[in-house]
Amino acid sequence: MGIKKLLTQTNNITRSSYVWNTINACVSAMVSPVLTIVLTRVNGLDDAGVYSIAFAVANLLLFLGQYGFRRFQSSDVTERYSFPEYYGIRIITCAAMMIAALVYCVYGSVVKGYTAEKFAVIMLVCVVKLVQAFSDVIHGRMQQLGRLDVATKSSCFRYVCEILSFCICVVLTKSLLTASIVCALTSIFVFFITSYNVGRDYCDYRPSFEKGAMKRLMIEGFPLFLSLFLNMYISNAPKYAIDSYLDEKTQALYGLVFMPAYFISLVAHFIFNPILKSYAEVWTEGRVKRFRFLVFRQCGVITGLTVLAMIVAATIAIPILSWIYSVDISGYKRELYVVVIGGGMLAFSVFFNTIITIIRLHKTLLYSYGATALAALLLSKYFVVNYGIMGAVTMYAVLMTGLALVLAVITFIKIQKEMPGATDVA
Fold first, then answer.
1. For residue 343, how many other CB atoms are within 10 A of its CB?
2. Which of 44, 153, 233, 387 has the maximum number of C-beta atoms within 10 A of its C-beta?
């Protein structure tokens, strides 16, 4: 009763939803960096490398578990599909997620020579992400009913408990496997006392597996799932290549050098999500010239931020990262420059992805991300085997640049086609 009251009590639902959504996003973004920092400082680069690939695999499979349904479900205000149907499909996708995790780990053991500990750690991190995927359907129902604040409080509390349990266990036991076990158990326990417990007031926990509804949901969710899945694969393609052809230390070093790009992606999402509605209104009203101006202006902002990030990389980034991780990365300044360029291109691709969503050219995203993912698959071995970390960051920058250019071309071709019918003046 106490936890329910803590999670549901508020004087202003709208304000609470906004504040807790922001807090939850920040805490969620800090999970990987904080755990990597503690693991690197306490256990060294090898364990940090194992955790890095485990987190990358689990994050990729998370999109299979969620199947891109969160926005679809939370915006289903007419309840075209019932919660039991969303609940049923989520049980299916989460089961598929864990089967895929097991298949990947068996493949890793047979082909890549994974140790039993690495196998277990990857599976345990996938369990943590399984909890996130499963709780997401309950949180989607809460948001659908106007209680995003309850969903984000529950999620935030779970993230904090996962971070604390993992970090404390690493410090006390110096065992990555033990910390992963404790973190997974903590995640499951906290899920049941928060999301699942409070969700009883919003959700009917009797799943429906009606074949017609399941088929329609799978078909409708597939484009969303595939584009998100491919986007995550492209971002992590260098990590998968390093895991296949190099060692854990290199994996950890790549993760440290890559951190600026990770934060650039976070900033990009924070910048672009709030503009979605205002840009959509301008486009819907047929004010194409104004829309084009806004797109060019935002491109200028991204360029400026990338230049600023490059200045930071050239001056204080190396000392700060070396101090945070207690690892000397002063020999990787060139790699850091390339990562920042790749991060800037990622920001452009996220922006044009948002614009393409507004102008309703969703199918082109599948083609664009599909082609980029294929390029990643074909190029990763060559870049990583021949050039190591520099090859990995170069491949990342090349992929992001190519994707950003393709999405930009699609965007401006569509804008140009709409210019004759524009209702505004230049």
1. 28
2. 153
